[in-house]
């Protein structure tokens, strides 16, 4: 199984689905993320005809040959995109595959490298940071939502260095600041910091980046402290 870049899920509108984290915000939407995790199973059900021999939705009779059905389901899911062991387990359970069969099939796939949560997590962090500009907190939450264990999550996000986070966060902030030339200092700070918090960047880094980009732009009030509590209070409110 090739784990170069995990496929990024899309919602019903076709746009890239963003991922949730503890802070509220547009980039992390738990309802969209839960829908993403279920999409593989829904597509399998849609492709399975009446003569496929596979189980239907929850509550229907399990397949006559659970192991063969489990292998087929796994191969289809993995052909669509790399998956974690937890995602495959969920998909198989929805199709009525017994847990003992699931464990056996997935163990064999792990042995031959078709399932590798460590490789998945590392590739996910690399692609989502580069493609969406997400910080460690957002990336860690996305991996947890896909069933990756805490040790593997910690290892994957540790590959993202503080310098990488700062560089990406500053690039995002500078790009957004370029669209706010007519806004006052307070509004600039609120919107810049809110965007970075939504992207999963920590409070200290967010404050540093906001000060740095404002100073680089010649903002006379750039050295003023960044009130992140006020920023968090405004998260989720529409921008004027």
From TrEMBL:
<dbReference type="InterPro" id="IPR053926">
    <property type="entry name" value="RecX_HTH_1st"/>
</dbReference>
<feature type="domain" description="RecX third three-helical">
    <location>
        <begin position="163"/>
        <end position="209"/>
    </location>
</feature>
<dbReference type="GO" id="GO:0005737">
    <property type="term" value="C:cytoplasm"/>
</dbReference>
<dbReference type="Pfam" id="PF21981">
    <property type="entry name" value="RecX_HTH3"/>
</dbReference>
<keyword id="KW-0963">Cytoplasm</keyword>
<comment type="similarity">
    <text>Belongs to the RecX family.</text>
</comment>
<dbReference type="GO" id="GO:0006282">
    <property type="term" value="P:regulation of DNA repair"/>
</dbReference>
<protein>
    <recommendedName>
        <fullName>Regulatory protein RecX</fullName>
    </recommendedName>
</protein>
<dbReference type="InterPro" id="IPR053925">
    <property type="entry name" value="RecX_HTH_3rd"/>
</dbReference>
<comment type="function">
    <text>Modulates RecA activity.</text>
</comment>
<dbReference type="InterPro" id="IPR003783">
    <property type="entry name" value="Regulatory_RecX"/>
</dbReference>
<dbReference type="InterPro" id="IPR036388">
    <property type="entry name" value="WH-like_DNA-bd_sf"/>
</dbReference>
<feature type="region of interest" description="Disordered">
    <location>
        <begin position="1"/>
        <end position="67"/>
    </location>
</feature>
<dbReference type="Pfam" id="PF02631">
    <property type="entry name" value="RecX_HTH2"/>
</dbReference>
<feature type="domain" description="RecX first three-helical">
    <location>
        <begin position="70"/>
        <end position="108"/>
    </location>
</feature>
<dbReference type="Pfam" id="PF21982">
    <property type="entry name" value="RecX_HTH1"/>
</dbReference>
<feature type="compositionally biased region" description="Low complexity">
    <location>
        <begin position="39"/>
        <end position="49"/>
    </location>
</feature>
<feature type="domain" description="RecX second three-helical">
    <location>
        <begin position="116"/>
        <end position="156"/>
    </location>
</feature>
<dbReference type="InterPro" id="IPR053924">
    <property type="entry name" value="RecX_HTH_2nd"/>
</dbReference>
């Amino acid at each position: 199984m090739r784990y170069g870049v995990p496929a990024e899920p899309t919602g019903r509108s076709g746009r890239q689905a963003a991922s949730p984290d503890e802070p509220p915000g547009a980039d992390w939407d738990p309802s969209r993320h839960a829908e993403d995790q279920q999409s593989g199973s829904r597509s399998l059900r849609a492709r399975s005809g009446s003569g496929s021999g596979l189980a239907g939705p929850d509550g229907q009779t399990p397949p006559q040959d659970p192991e063969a059905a489990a292998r087929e389901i796994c191969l289809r899911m993995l052909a669509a995109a790399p998956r974690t062991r937890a995602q495959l387990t969920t998909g198989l359970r929805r199709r009525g595959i017994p847990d003992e069969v699931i464990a056996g099939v997935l163990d064999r796939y792990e042995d031959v490298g078709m399932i590798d949560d460590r490789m998945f997590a590392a590739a996910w962090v690399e692609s989502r940071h580069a493609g969406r500009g997400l910080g460690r907190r957002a990336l860690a939450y996305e991996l947890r939502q896909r069933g990756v264990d805490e040790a593997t999550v910690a290892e994957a996000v540790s590959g993202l260095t503080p310098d990488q986070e700062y560089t990406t966060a500053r690039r995002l902030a500078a790009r957004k600041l370029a669209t706010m030339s007519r806004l006052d200092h307070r509004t600039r700070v609120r919107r810049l910091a809110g965007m970075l918090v939504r992207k999963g960047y920590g409070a200290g880094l967010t404050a540093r980046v906001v000060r740095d980009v404002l100073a680089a732009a010649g903002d006379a009030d750039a050295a003023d402290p960044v009130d992140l509590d006020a920023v968090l209070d405004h998260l989720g409110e529409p921008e004027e």
